Predict the structure.
Amino acid sequence: MINPAYLSNWKVIQRTLKKEGSVSLHQFLLPDAYKRIQHSLPKLKREEHLLSHRYASAPIQLPELASFLSCHPLFTIFSFTWKDYTILHDNLKETKGTDIILDLTNNWPEEACGQIIYKGKEDIIIPAKGNTMTLVNTAGKIRYIKYVNHHGKGKQRVFLLGRMAAP
Amino acid sequence: MNHWIRENNPSERELHTVFTQAKPFPHLILPDFFDEQKILSVLRSLLKEKWYPKQADLFSFKQTNDLVSSQQKALQDFRSFLCSPDFLQFMKEITGCTLRKIDLAGTLYEPGDYLLCHDDQLDKRKIAFFVYLSTPEEGGELALFSSRNGIPIEIGKHIKPAFNTFAFFEVSPLSFHQVEEVLKGQRIAISGWFS
């Protein structure tokens, strides 16, 4: 399921994550596995709270990733389309750990925005790129999703987000 | 005062009634408000100011520095007029608020730019205002939200930006508003707060 190049380099990935604060693994899944996940997504529920967020989401289990990550993170699938966003707000607090993002968006127009942004001492900006897994050390950072503008009209920015708690 | 404002406005007493009774919260829209030649001069000068991109979770647009630091006479004169005793008295008669200080800057929204829902409450802001200097072809409306239990629920009013319109609203815990994404054209305005 997972690109063998990554399976044999987990320790290098962990070292990079520790040093750089984030690491992106392109072509993370083998093509068949990537298509299988894309076509087996659950029905998403739309949520809108004007002062904090607007998107569709649903919980999802991915036991196939557990052995690679050496843990069983809970994943949520998110879909952002035109006018969707999340906003940082007073009740939002940083939590130490690692975010795991598996991007399922193909051919997303960059000008539509919708990036995942980690705000901290140095911001980390994660653009949409299909079949990419990104690990982000969340200590000292808070996350938001940039408003999707009209260039994203008719398209969906879809990704899975899971979390590994700090040891 | 008469040099800057056209003379066809209703009386302050009438405007006060419109302002206080406006829904979803007190606001007023005054089309063709300023002398056209003067406001065109303000626009021309504003476009010569330096514009800075502003990007955050809540917004995307370009902005000038506060116009208090502008070296251009037309902008200095306009700012002086807006915080002149006569104009502050005019605003007091409409809003009922005693106003002493003004912060203002130019804002430029291009296609894809927006400002999401918020209430503007900060420091001692009493009145938020907009002097629209362009009419975008599509988008850029100011949306005012109705609220329930202190939470914005739905858009109660759209204010379409149009050249030479002066609009303002009372800042309060319920003054939830947003600038809709500009889809076509440019939305140029001078906006700020009286406190």
Observations:
- The interface with chain B takes residues 50-51, 83, 85-88, 111, 113, 117, 119, 144, 146-147, 149-151 of chain A (CB under 8 Å).
- Residues 65 and 97 of chain A are 17 Å apart (CA to CA).
- The first helix of chain A runs from residue 4 to 7.
